[in-house]
Structures are given as structure tokens and as C-alpha cells.
# Entry
Amino acid sequence: MSEKKGIFAKIKSVKNIEIIFALVLGAIALFVFFGNFSLFSTQEKNSSYDFSEYVSSLQNKIEAVISQINGAGNVDMVITFSGGVEQEYAYTTEKVTENGVVTETNTLTLVSGKPVVIRDKMPQISGVVIVADGAGNMSVRLEIIKAVQALLDVPNGKIEVFKRS
# Structure
């Protein structure tokens, strides 16, 4: 206990300890502040993925699930989309009242010269084609269609299942 009192006494005896303490806290705050900016820029780069990679990954995951259906066998699939990825951007709204007239202006929000993307809107699925070894069996074909409907939220009219030749 006396050791702790001795350490605190030494710290209190240092001239301008408040200034040193404030400088240390300021340095930590700057480190956290600029550290977060680099973290955000890294996340921005990671979130800008290639749409074809997304589609390929989605197809591979669904193929893996469908191939686990009893009797399905080897599975290949293709998903088609209508259009491409749409991005929604952040805007700042400024209202100015002049002589009783309110004028509203929307300005695109930019960070480092680039617009801020709020979210990516994926395109609608326009069709799914599946080729499976076991698709000749009607019950397997129906199970595959049900699985694709559940995974992609696509009506069965947009899903075609064929037997592998």
C-alpha cells in the first residue's frame, strides 16, 4: 500500500502533470480518430465486390445444398438477373427560408471526392436453370424446385430443372 502512495506522490510532484496527461489523452484520441478513418476506407474497398464473384459464390452455395438432396447427385446451376447492381447514395438536404419561401436543396455527400454509398440493391432474379443427375425422378425434381424457391425467393415458373445427359 505504501508503494502505491509513493508512486502517486512521485506523479503528483511532477510539474505540469495535467499538461502531460492532456497531451497523452490527445495523442490517444488522434490515434483512434485516424485509425478509424483507415478502417473505414479498408471496409469500403472490401464492400465494393465484383458482381460476377457474388453470383458465382451464390451458385456454388446453392449447388452444394441441392447436391445434398437425396437422389439429386451432381448439380450445376445458372442464375440470370435482370439488370445490374444499383447503388443508393447519401444526400444532405438543406432548407433555406427566404421571405416565407422554403427552398430545399439536395447535395450528394462526398468523402475524399467519392459519393457515399448507403446500400447496394441487388437486381431481380429473372430465371434459374438446374441440371442434376437425379432430375429424371419427379420427386427429386420437386425437392430441388422447393429448395431453390426457399433459398432464392423465386416463383417456380422461373425455375427449370433438367436431367443431366
Summary: Residues 50-85+122-165 form a domain with the GMP Synthetase; Chain A, domain 3 fold (CATH 3.30.300.30). The longest strand covers residues 124-132. The longest helix spans residues 17-47. The helical segments are 2-13, 17-47, 51-66, 138-152.
